[in-house]
Design brief:
The chain is 32% helix and 25% strand. The protein has 522 residues and is an alpha/beta fold. The strands form six sheets. The chain has a nine-stranded mixed beta sheet. A five-stranded parallel beta sheet has the order 4-3-5-6-7, with helices on both faces. Strands 17, 18, 19, 20 and 21 form a five-stranded antiparallel beta sheet that branches. GO terms for molecular function: acid-thiol ligase activity; ATP binding; CoA-ligase activity.
């Protein structure tokens, strides 16, 4: 049971804290038969989820996984994700969720970088992992919903509930989340046990006001920091019900889920909202009488989408800014307090500041680089001291986003401070896309920048210099796009390709992407 006798700290949390126990046990004591999860397999009550988590903790011991060792989660959104994720934390093992859209090479690199000793894979993703599994005979592979390895359900059935959680400290590392880097290689952000409860209190229960009567659905998957909060941390902290969508969020399927399950809180991203509102089967407000709150994050929410959503459903979309490093949203609008085109104001419990290139605070109305201070910051990147020092500067975390703040504290997005793109809420390194294009025999070199589509959402645009003899045209554009898709996660391919004679460069030969962006904007 919860340790109520241990010493408490200034934020009210005990020093002896296991995040899985903290989120699950109160719900099991209050309402074990209440539905915690609705997924593609039906409903899962809190009591059943609790049993699965405790059995998973025992299963880790049977697999030979020891405390503080890493396990990778390459899982689609079903009850298996929280079962494994929370089971690991219960056992003192460190779960590391992975983007299910990555390539085999991405997975291979992360496995080696993390030093993980086990990998949990949804059956639909087994083909991507098969070459890696063949190369790593000492890593234990477990299959969810079909697959060639140890069956997860059989593993749980053969395990005994581990009733006592690992004796963890609030500041112990609980889980990692990989985030993209400017070189294209991801970075493992390490988060502690206390952060799960704190982010729930500050944003999920505080700003968003999620309560036990809510039914929550998130477009972002649980491997994202945004989705992890939306679909796991916040519903469990509130004793609410979450609807998990197993695969990609298609408008028709989401519409049906919202109607059937009477969803009250919808967490989305601008790309989804644009596609959903344009879909002929998009419901009207009479079909969604329970919907009381919609939030958006991952990329800036265009004004016209905010207005179109309100006009259709009579509900505002609450925009917000978060990051993997901070675990979730720390700048947000509020219900009844929305300014279209603004990201919002700082969430209670956090502080922000805007600084110039010399780290001097800028005046209201001036653009500066956004830095944030708060209790949910990661403690650093795994095996990457240089990037850790650059991002985590004392108590302040560098976001890489440029913002303008007015005298009332409202923040408006002004673009990335570096060359990284955010496509559908996911960071994309231009270097990675450029390297994929440059590997084609017709391409001499390439540069990639962000451009906006008809919905004012950012997508990659490539500028390509061809080898002599290559013939530019629509056929080659299609060929290069297919080439990139075959080598990258699908969301990273360039939506537009322009053929140019040369790329703008510095005297030392570095590509000047800012000039391409400037020339494009006129």
């Amino acid at each position: 049971m919860l340790n109520t006798a241990s010493a408490h700290t200034a934020d009210g949390l005990p020093e002896a804290l296991n995040a899985a126990q903290d989120l699950l046990e109160p719900n099991v004591l209050r309402h074990p038969d209440k539905v915690a999860i609705v997924d593609s397999r039906g409903s899962c009550a809190y009591g059943i989820l609790f049993d699965r988590v405790q059995r998973m903790a025992d299963a880790f011991a049977r697999l030979g996984v020891r405390r503080d060792q890493r396990v990778l989660l390459s899982l689609l959104d079903t009850r298996d994700f929280p079962s494994v994720f929370l089971g690991a934390i219960w056992a003192g093992v460190i779960p590391v969720p992975l983007n299910t859209l990555l390539t085999t090479d991405d997975y291979r690199w992360i496995l080696h970088n993390s030093g993980a000793v086990a990998v949990f894979v949804s059956g639909d993703l087994a083909e991507k992992w098969a070459p890696v599994a063949a190369e790593e005979p000492h890593v234990r592979f477990v299959s969810s919903e079909g697959g060639p390895w140890i069956d997860l359900e059989a593993l749980l059935a053969g395990a005994e509930p581990q009733h006592a959680p690992a004796r963890t400290h609030r500041d112990d590392v609980a889980f990692w989340l990989y985030t993209s880097g400017s070189t294209g290689r991801p970075k493992g952000a390490m988060h502690i046990h206390a952060s799960m409860r704190l982010v729930a209190n500050l944003y999920g229960l505080g700003t968003a006001g999620i309560g036990p009567d809510d039914v929550v659905l998130s477009i972002a998957k649980q491997f994202f920091a945004y989705g992890l909060g939306n679909s796991l941390i916040f519903p469990l902290a509130a004793g609410a019900t979450v609807v998990l969508v197993r695969e990609r969020a298609f408008p028709a399927e989401i519409s049906a889920a919202l109607i059937v399950h009477r969803v009250s809180v919808l967490f989305g991203v601008p790309t989804f909202f644009a596609n959903w509102l344009a879909h002929p089967g998009c419901p009207d407000r009479e079909q969604l009488p329970s919907l009381r709150l919609a939030t958006s994050a991952g990329e800036a929410l265009p004004v016209h989408l905010c207005n179109a959503f309100r006009d259709r459903f009579g509900v505002d979309v609450i925009d917000g800014l978060g990051s993997t490093e901070m675990l979730h949203i720390f700048v947000s609008q509020r219900n009844g307090e929305v300014r279209a085109g603004c990201t919002g104001r700082v969430v209670d419990g956090y502080e922000v500041r805007l600084v110039d290139d010399q780290e001097r605070t800028v005046e209201p109305g001036e653009m500066g680089n956004l830095q944030v201070k708060g209790p949910t910051a990661a403690i650093g990147y795994w095996r990457n001291r240089q990037k850790s020092v650059g991002t985590f500067r004392g108590l302040w975390t560098v976001t890489g986003d440029n913002y303008v703040m007015d005298a009332e504290g409202w923040l408006t997005y002004a673009g990335r401070a570096d060359d990284m793109l955010k496509v559908g809420g996911i960071y994309v390194s231009p270097i990675e896309v450029e390297e994929a294009l440059a590997s084609h025999p017709d391409v001499l070199e390439a540069a990639v920048v962000g451009d906006v589509d008809g919905d004012d959402l950012v997508k990659p645009r490539a500028y390509v210099v061809l080898h002599d003899g290559a013939v530019p045209g629509e056929a080659l554009i299609a060929t290069l796009q297919a080439w990139a898709k075959a080598r990258l996660a699908p969301f990273k391919y360039p939506r537009w390709i322009d053929f140019v004679d040369e790329l703008p460069k510095t005297a030392t030969g570095k590509i000047q992407r800012f000039r391409l962006r400037r020339d494009r904007s006129g």
